[in-house]
Write a structure and sequence with these properties.
It contains 3 helices and no strands. Helix 1 runs antiparallel to helix 2 and helix 2 packs antiparallel against helix 3. The N and C termini lie far apart (about 50 Å). It has helices at about 1-20, 25-50, 55-85. With about 100 residues, it is mainly alpha-helical. It is a multi-pass membrane protein. Belongs to the complex I subunit 4L family.
Length: about 100
């Protein structure tokens, strides 16, 4: 049972590593955030399935992650329409 937690924790850490290393591109940052959200969802799902029988918390978490995905996708489309690429480092010139 602990192998599930270890696997999804490593999945979370790999998403965090990609988020830290590839911070220049907005799309890669969003994909790594989605992998972290997905790994946390699986950890919560395994934890609830072993200790509780109610999965209402998982459904709420999944709804919130879908809302986050839709918002980030709309920001990505707006960013590409305004500036032509998804590089985050070009915003240093604006400030």
């Amino acid at each position: 049972m602990y192998y599930f937690y270890l696997f999804f924790f490593l999945f979370f850490l790999s998403g965090l590593f990609v988020y830290i290393v590839k911070y220049k591109h907005f799309l890669l940052m969003l994909l790594s955030l989605e992998s972290m959200v997905l790994s946390l969802y699986f950890i919560i799902m395994v934890w609830i399935s072993h200790f509780f029988f109610e999965s209402f918390l998982c459904i709420i978490y999944l709804i919130m992650s879908v809302c986050e995905s839709a918002l980030s996708l709309s920001l990505l489309v707006l960013l590409i329409r305004m500036y032509g690429n998804d590089q985050v480092m070009m915003f240093d010139n604006l400030w």
